[in-house]
Automatic annotation (TrEMBL):
Protein name from the UniProt record: Carboxymuconolactone decarboxylase-like domain-containing protein
UniProt cross-references to Gene3D superfamilies, sorted A to Z: AhpD-like
Start and end residues of each Carboxymuconolactone decarboxylase-like domain: 35-113
Originating organism: PS1 clade bacterium
Source taxon at top rank: Bacteria
Length: 137
């Protein structure tokens, strides 16, 4: 029984990380300690992002980028924001689209939102380039 539970927890951790476009040690820990909670989060993710929807996955990533940008600049948020920027770009968002969406946030969120987020975007683009990712036309 313990082997089965361990496999279930490992699978939950893998799915949890994949759906969030970046793997964090927190995902594995949560899946191990609170598998029922992670299953609920995955069910919620399915309802929001996997079922038939109005917005495609690319737009969902743009919403994540905006929400994380407005949430604020802190070291823990930076990697999360960059991960969503990278995923958005890989799904077809152009840097100019991301920048325009961030510019819309300046009035309600302040100039820091734009500066911080564009900095993260530039770092994400550098990382994608270093990883050898090429935009498909």
């Amino acid at each position: 029984m313990a082997k089965i539970e361990k496999k279930i927890k490992e699978n939950l951790s893998k799915i949890f990380s994949e759906r969030r476009s970046h793997s964090y040690p927190a995902h594995e820990w949560l899946a191990d300690k609170f598998p029922d909670y992670v299953k609920i989060m995955l069910d919620l993710d399915y309802e929001i992002r996997q079922k038939t929807k109005i917005f495609d996955e690319k737009m969902h990533e743009l919403f994540h980028i905006i929400a994380l940008a407005v949430k604020g600049s802190n070291p823990h948020n930076q990697q999360h924001l960059k991960a969503h920027i990278k995923k958005g770009i890989m799904l077809g968002l152009d840097p100019e689209e991301i920048a325009e969406a961030l510019m819309v946030c300046v009035n309600p969120g302040g100039a820091m939102v734009l500066t911080y987020s564009i900095t993260c975007m530039l770092e994400a683009l550098e990382e994608l380039d270093a990883e050898g990712w090429e935009k498909s036309e």
